[in-house]
Amino acid sequence: MKRQRWLSLFLAAALSVGLLAGCGAPAEPTSTPEAASPAPSASEPSETSAQRTKVNLAMLNGPTGMGAAKLIADAAAGTTLNDYNVQVASQPTDLTAKLNTGEVDIAALPTNVAASYYNKTGSIQMLALNTLGVLYLLENGTSVNTLADLKGQTLYATGQGANPEYVLDYLLTLNGVDPDTEVDIQWKTSEEVQALMVSGEAKLAMLPVPAATGVLMQNSDVRAAIDFNTAWDEAGAEGTFTMGCVVVRNEFLEENPQAVEDFLTEYAASIEYVRDNPEEAAPLVVEAGIVPKEPIALAAIPQANLVCITGSDMLSIRDYYTVLYNANPDSIGGANPDDAFYYLP
After folding, report:
1. What are phi and psi of 22, to 5 degrees?
2. I want to staple 70 with a disulfide (CB 3.0 to 4.6 A). Which of 65, 129, 239, 270 is the partner?
3. Which Pfam families does this UniProt record tie to the protein (predicted)?
4. Residue 313: strand, helix, or coil
């Protein structure tokens, strides 16, 4: 039992995904990894390396960065349309600071952080939504199948004061459950919640991928009872529950419009490759420094809800932003972003 608890805590520390609004001390980004082998290229450069546009690209650990793994491998091999200088960071604050100084041109961010940064600076545009919801309700048992079943239960959860809390409260309310009086929600750190679930001391927990993935791998009695994307749809919530996106600095976009279009082409291909080929993609995810262990990456890819939603389809996130705004206006910077936030060529 002690060994399981220690392993859970180790995995939790390694799996910080930056999707809980970037709390904690910033970590230094890692450098571009060497190309994984074998990894077929999604595209071939049309110009020599010297002629390709240099793009300072930054991704986050966890689901928000997973879809870029193939692109990162191709960039290291020199087979991409752009010349990508890639960083992988642990915290969104690492990336917003570098967007501000111009050290990063294109970055993956949690959608709430992107909205807040835009409302503060007006200096970025959203290029694509890259990750749907990655929250899961885990149960050590078989009695909970809908959020309505949480009435009268104790739920251990992480993400208080951030998106997970606001989404949980919203969906519980839609399911006729008062989150303040009818569910005993125990807010703890991700490490604490994982340890309780792995040891069997807790029956119910809300965790994001890949932290949830780690629990499922360590305790075979725990199941993924509810995918919050499904819960969102079943509750009749409008719009798209989308937790991750990529943004571009306006100045870079104005100076390099073709490079941005090429990025979107290669990024969409990378996401499709990772999503459709988890066994081949898992080593690339690890090589990129996005997830620490290949078995975790392999199990997490199908649960990460990777997408590449661009153009006017991105506007479906406005309903999600409204949910966050109604819960706490500061969570998205005080306003639902206007049309200028979205890249609509």
Report:
1. 70, 40
2. 270
3. NMT1 (PF09084)
4. helix
